Amino acid sequence: MSLDDARAVLTNATRITSFSGAGLSAESGIATFRDTPDSHWSRYDPTRLASPEGFADDPDLVLNWYGDRRRDIAAASPNDAHRALANCPAVTHVTQNVDDLLERAGASDVIHLHGTIGADRCHAECGFRETIDMADPPHRRPCPTCGAPMRPAVVWFGEMLPADAWEAALSTIEHCDVLLVIGTSAVVYPAAGLIDVARQGGARVVVVNPEASGATGDADIEIRATAGEAVPILLADLTQ
Ligand code: OAD
Predict the structure, then answer these.
(1) How far does the centroid of ligand 1 lie from the alpha carbon of residue 199, in Å?
(2) Ligand 1 site, residue 211, Cβ cutoff 6 A
């Protein structure tokens, strides 16, 4: 099916949910996790950088790496796909991305399954959390409430997804007519399982990705293009 067919499916839908991954922000210059030779994960062992064990072993390595990512995101701008999504009131946004580019494009109520890199939280989960300046990220410091280490408010390997985000994602995806899957390898669970939830609820699945992915087998329509190329066209009839 063509881009025009997919556009017609979206135009005729009432409830659209977007489900995005790192590919949505690739054209903003934010490296994805698994694609590129110099991607964020390839230079380091991910379990050293994004796990409670890695943080316990070498907190400065972890925080410096997050500091680099935070500065990259602060310097980046939303791309055409972020803007098209944000300007489309019919779309609810569920993302695996920890960046704030959808919000900076004007989207509200974005469901962040893997947390947000623009905040720190207490590693001991005393409840303290604060927004940080991504252009000037903090170094190692104790939680002002309980003294445990502060850390990025993102989900690390081996950690549970935030229950409120997971429940909100399930609720919107169970009831959508179309799930628009954008720029995800769809290999990281439980998030990737949401595509199956949409199918079981009777939704059509439209996938935007220049490559085959874990979502390919679940796609009713697959558009092999970048997010910046395809999403503005797909949503053109629905944007404000
Ligand atoms: P990945 O890096 O695994 O996959 C990125 C996907 O985006 C790939 O399928 C690419 O083909 C596609 N892609 C690349 N450029 C694109 C573009 N311009 N437009 C559209 N698609 C493009 O990223 P995620 O699927 O987001 O988890 O990874 C999922 C999770 O893995 C992340 O949230 C992170 C990581 O572990 C946590 O941090 C917990």
Answers:
(1) 21
(2) yes
Contact 154, 98 (CB under 8 A): yes
Distance CA 116, CA 107 (A): 15
Q: How far is residue 82's CA from residue 72's CA, in Å, rounded to a whole number?
A: 17
- Give the tokens for residue 29: 């210059």
Q: Mind listing the pLDDT tens digit for each residue in 13-57?
A: 999 999 999 999 999 999 888 766 555 556 667 777 899 999 999
Mean pLDDT of 61-87: 97
Both tokens assigned to 163: 């229950």
Token pair 């779309």 in the structure block, residue? 91
DSSP annotation string for 102-166: HHHTT--S-EETTEEEEEEEETT-SS-EEE--TTS---S-B-TTT-SBEEEEEPPTTPPPPHHHH
Which atom of ligand 1 is found nearest the CA of 39? 2
Q: Give the count of alpha carbons within 13 A of 77, CB side only.
A: 3
Residue 134: exposed, middle, or buried by beta-carbon count in 10 A (0-12, 13-18, 19+)?
buried
Q: Which two tokens stand for residue 118?
A: 């623009």
Q: In the annotation, is 114 catalytic?
A: yes
Q: pTM of this prediction?
A: 0.95
CA dihedral sign of residues 193, 199, 202, 205: positive
Question: Distance (Å, rounded) from C-alpha 238 to C-alpha 155?
Answer: 33
Contact 81, 227 (CB under 8 A): yes
Tell me the backbone φ, ψ of residue 124, rounded to 5 degrees.
-85, 5
